[in-house]
Amino acid sequence: MVDRLQADANPSITSLVEGIIGDAQQLMRNELLLARREMQDEWTKTKTAAAALGVGMVILALGGLFLCFMLVHLLNSLTNMPLWGCFAIVGGLFAAVGAALLFAARNKANDISFVPRQTVETMKENVQWIKNQT
Fold first, then answer.
1. Positive or negative CA dihedral for 38, 42, 48, 51?
2. What is the value of pTM for the model shown?
3. d(Cα 124, Cα 17) in Å, to the nearest integer?
4. Fewest Cβ atoms closer than 10 Å to its Cβ: which of 29, 68, 86, 118?
5. Comparing C-alpha atoms, which of 90, 58, 88, 54 is closest to residue 71?
6. Contact 78/72 with Cβ under 8 angstroms?
7. Which tens digits make up the pLDDT trace of 87-126?
8. Whose CA is closest to 75, among 64, 61, 88, 94?
9. Nearest-CA neighbor of 88 among 76, 100, 98, 104?
10. What is the radius of gyration, based on Cα positions, of the chain?
């Protein structure tokens, strides 16, 4: 009877390993569930931020549009120029600034390389070094 009590108190190595594996599997399941929940929370935050950003951009665009109309009417009242001429001047200024910004952005975009040049050079050096070793 004493041997039987000791057998129950001292589980076999097989049962210990099974217990460890079962605990590890449960831990991995829980970690995956936690990661999934965190990703869902981050996705919700992202959607909320994107919606607020979109609404803000629309309101900002409307404000800019009204400011453009204000500039046209201000120019009209200060110069007694026809309204169509004031629209042409303000529109032309905005078009010129926009074209200059697009030109600058295009020049910057031409400098972008999608191939990591430094990494390619390093890899070539590594391949050459390996060839020299053999």
1. negative
2. 0.55
3. 47
4. 118
5. 90
6. no
7. 999 999 999 999 999 999 999 988 887 777 777 788 888 8
8. 88
9. 76
10. 35
d(CA 75, CA 86): 6
- The residues spanned by each domain of the chain are 1-60, 81-134
Give the number of other CB atoms < 10 A from CB of residue 72.
19
Q: 76 vs 42, 61, 85, 91, CA distance in Å?
A: 51, 23, 8, 14
Strongest mean pLDDT among 30-34, 50-54, 122-126? 50-54
Q: Give the C-alpha separation, 112 to 98, whole Å.
A: 21
Whole-angstrom distance, CA of residue 105 vs CA of residue 116:
21
